[in-house]
Design goal:
10% strand, binds protoporphyrin IX containing FE, Cytochrome p450, 3-stranded antiparallel sheet, 12 strands
């Protein structure tokens, strides 16, 4: 272990606001299972693709039920709700099977035309304007509208999801835990959802709120409060992740003009381009696991109770798996990235939906606005959990039509 590695603090938001990749590469090469003791609570920092996959797929030894965050911020604010992402088997298995009914391939396919309509209406709004903030005016809107659509929130109220989301992020997303704004936003959302449940009790529809009210496994249903807790998780999990893949994806295209030309000339590359955006951006910096027993990993002795942190972006630049890993390549294949998790029981429930949103957004955006350009420096989100962009000025250019 070099002296340098001892001074690295991967829990500082500033580390993620700058370019983290050279440091992550050094760690991966010199000390891939690194004992990180420079922060409030020590943990093992995992930076190799195969180690992250192995730990994700061994939940009996490396569990999620004892927390998923490194400190402050992510996860902790969710503790009071019945929460899929911090549960272990058998409770996780039961709940995951239940809520998965809302995310079947058939249901996601049905959403595609809605996702396209929503994208079109977002682009209609900005068409004709000279310079826009791509984050606020475009990328932030789609994921919140889509979560609204999934839940069954009527179109005229879908902007509320964005308002709540902003309230929650501003309240809790800056790495210092929560403040009153965040709790107020959660309160408004819960009240609204309780109203929806009341309405669906009278007359069910085919939306997710109705579906969860009726869903039952082994004769057991989820309480309505726990259902609302799950909807809040979707709000946390589906929003900034998708938004930042879209924003980071556009920035990557702007920084690699040859790849933008390739994608514009060959729209069928959109599927592999979306995967490469996920890999390259890796908007979720980490999830944590806790050892349930003593274990060994790459020669290091892990003790029961130790924390292990999976740094997805580091695994996604592992040269053992991705040739020329720092290159953004919209034709990259195969692309076994771990931006949506390293496999195992907690693999992203919204993966198909997130992928759909990214694909449809870039299909529509690049077709309508082929001359789109990033016109200024993006500003970064201050967080150690989401590697994201807060503002990014963009000029759309001529609209070639919806
Ligand atoms: C496209 C961008 C997205 C990224 C990069 C992303 C990333 C992730 C990651 C890294 C995990 C943890 C995996 C693990 O611990 O093994 C996860 C879990 C999860 N994601 Fe996503 N996600 C995205 C979109 C979405 C969307 C759109 C939704 C839903 C609307 C969603 C819902 C969830 C849920 C519910 C979990 C917890 C699953 C469980 O614990 O069983 N995600 N996601």
């Amino acid at each position: 272990m070099s002296m340098d590695n001892e001074r690295i603090d991967l829990t500082r938001p500033e580390f993620w606001m700058a370019d983290p990749y050279p440091t992550l590469a050094r760690l991966r090469e010199s000390d891939p299972v690194h004992y990180h003791d420079t922060a409030a609570h020590p943990f093992w920092a995992l930076t190799r693709h195969d180690d992250i996959v192995a730990v994700s797929k061994t939940p009996e030894t490396f569990c999620s039920g004892k927390g998923i965050a490194i400190q402050g911020g992510s996860g902790e604010e969710m503790a009071e709700f019945e929460n899929l992402v911090t549960m272990d088997d058998p409770a996780h298995k039961w709940l995951r099977a239940l809520v998965s009914r809302g995310f079947t391939p058939g249901r996601i396919r049905t959403l595609e035309s809605h996702v396209r309509e929503l994208t079109t209406s977002i682009l209609d709004e900005v068409s004709g304007r000279d310079e826009i903030d791509f984050v606020e005016d475009v990328a932030a809107l789609l994921p919140s509208y889509v979560i609204g659509e999934l839940l069954g929130v009527p179109r005229q109220d879908q902007h509320l999801i964005k308002v709540w989301s902003d309230g929650i992020t501003e309240g809790g997303g800056e790495g210092d835990g929560q403040n009153e704004g965040g709790f107020a936003a959660i309160g408004h959302m819960m009240t609204y959802l309780a109203g929806m449940q009341e309405a669906r009790r009278q007359s069910p529809t085919d939306d997710l709120v109705s579906l969860l009210m009726q869903a039952e496994i082994d004769g057991r249903r989820l309480s309505e409060q726990a259902q609302r807790g799950f909807f809040l998780l979707l709000e946390f999990a589906g929003n900034e992740t998708t938004r930042n893949t879209i924003v980071g994806g556009l920035l990557a295209l702007a920084e690699h003009p040859d790849q933008a030309v390739l994608l514009r000339n060959e729209p069928s590359l959109i599927g592999s381009a979306a995967e490469e955006m996920l890999r390259f951006v890796s908007p979720v910096t980490h999830f944590r696991r806790t050892a349930t027993k003593d274990a060994e990993l790459r020669g290091r002795t892990i003790q029961e109770g130790d924390w292990l942190v999976l740094f997805y972006g580091a695994g996604n630049r592992d040269p053992e798996v991705f040739p020329d890993p720092d290159r953004f390549d919209v034709t990259r294949y195969p692309n076994p990235h771990i931006a949506l998790g390293g496999g195992g029981p907690h693999f992203c429930l919204g993966a198909a939906l997130g992928r759909l949103e990214i694909r449809v957004m870039f299909e529509e955006l690049l077709r309508r606005f082929p001359d789109i350009e990033v016109t200024g420096r993006p500003t970064r989100v201050r967080s150690n959990f989401i590697r994201g962009i807060k503002t990014m000025p963009v000029r759309l250019g001529k609209d070639h039509g919806a």
